[in-house]
């Protein structure tokens, strides 16, 4: 059944497709770039179709190459996991998650103790760099938690919860805001369309005239800085109901006119199709789904998997 499969060529292709570089694949597999090129040429001849577009100084996957990479990458991950399971067990297994610094600090890290209690052998490493990672090319990251208005038809994913924004402050600042215009705390987001005109929208819905009176507005680059400023009594912050939940539960922040909420985007946990079968990734998906349900946030849509969209594309 497998006798005719060109396994060496498939391994060379997976490395070159993941790294988008014949040279980098050669370094990873300890062979020459010429050997990688030869293996891929032979695979393309065997399949009867090109897998890469050869461009000046780089290569790009064709549609056929992308389809082959998605299935092959997941299959090789399964093989690697099966082989590892036969070796003497290591004391820990590593799981690398990419997400924003704010989500890590304000939602994920405070809850990770419950994950470790259930899975003491899994060591979670958080990557909180701002750059969006291409999971099909960067195999060092197991999964991502993204906040976005977009959908991801080429990834396996779990929609966690939808987000809304409200106004929060320390108990003293909330009481004071009923008598005089407050200092407004805002976040200068890298993706402005997710936060642009947030205060204007909230004030319009609430019927507040704060913005007409030339208010004092303090801006921060990260949400957790803005929340710390609000906790310290520096004003009222327009903040995510997801990210503010721990501070509200502990009484550090309270809502100002909490019935007034404006829509945000949504959080999803995502991985390359096939990687969800990797035990640490599967364990995290199961745990984070439970945490999303227990968080008490109202969802416009129930927690759901969208792997069906992956298989249809």
Automatic annotation (TrEMBL):
PROSITE patterns: HTH_LYSR (PS50931). It comes from the Bacteria. The keyword DNA-binding applies. The keyword Lipid metabolism does not apply. Transmembrane segments: none annotated. InterPro entries: LysR-type_TF_proteobact-type (IPR058163), LysR_HTH_N (IPR000847), LysR_subst-bd (IPR005119). Keywords: DNA-binding, Transcription, Transcription regulation. Residues 5-62 form the HTH lysR-type domain. Belongs to the LysR transcriptional regulatory family. This is LysR family transcriptional regulator. It comes from Pseudomonas canavaninivorans.
């Amino acid at each position: 059944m497998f006798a005719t499969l060109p396994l060496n060529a498939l391994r060379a292709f997976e490395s070159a497709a993941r790294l988008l570089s014949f040279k980098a694949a050669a370094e990873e597999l300890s062979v020459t770039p010429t050997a990688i090129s030869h293996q891929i040429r032979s695979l393309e001849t065997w399949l009867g179709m090109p897998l890469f577009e050869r461009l000046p100084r780089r290569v790009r996957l064709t549609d056929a190459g992308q389809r082959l990479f998605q299935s092959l990458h997941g299959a090789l991950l399964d093989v690697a996991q099966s082989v590892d399971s036969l070796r003497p067990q290591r004391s820990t297994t590593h799981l690398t998650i990419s997400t924003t610094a704010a989500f890590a600090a304000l939602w994920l890290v405070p809850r990770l103790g419950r994950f470790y209690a259930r899975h003491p052998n899994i060591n979670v490493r958080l990557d909180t760099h701002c750059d969006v990672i291409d999971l099909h090319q960067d195999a060092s990251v197991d999964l991502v938690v993204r906040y976005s208005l977009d959908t991801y038809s080429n990834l396996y994913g779990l929609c966690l919860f939808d987000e809304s924004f409200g106004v929060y402050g320390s108990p003293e600042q909330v009481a004071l805001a009923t008598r005089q215009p407050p200092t407004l705390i805002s976040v200068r987001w890298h993706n402005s369309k997710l936060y642009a005109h947030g205060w204007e929208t909230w004030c319009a819905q609430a019927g507040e005239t704060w913005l007409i009176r030339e208010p004092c507005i303090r801006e921060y680059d990260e949400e957790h800085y803005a929340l710390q400023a609000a906790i310290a009594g520096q004003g009222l912050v327009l903040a995510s109901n997801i990210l503010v939940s721990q501070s509200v539960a502990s009484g550090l922040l309270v809502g100002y006119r909490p019935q007034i909420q404006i829509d945000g985007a949504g959080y999803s946990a995502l991985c390359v199709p096939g990687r969800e079968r990797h035990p640490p990734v599967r364990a995290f998906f199961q745990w984070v789904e439970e945490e999303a349900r227990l968080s008490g946030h109202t969802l416009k849509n129930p927690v759901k998997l969208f792997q069906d969209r992956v298989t249809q594309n």
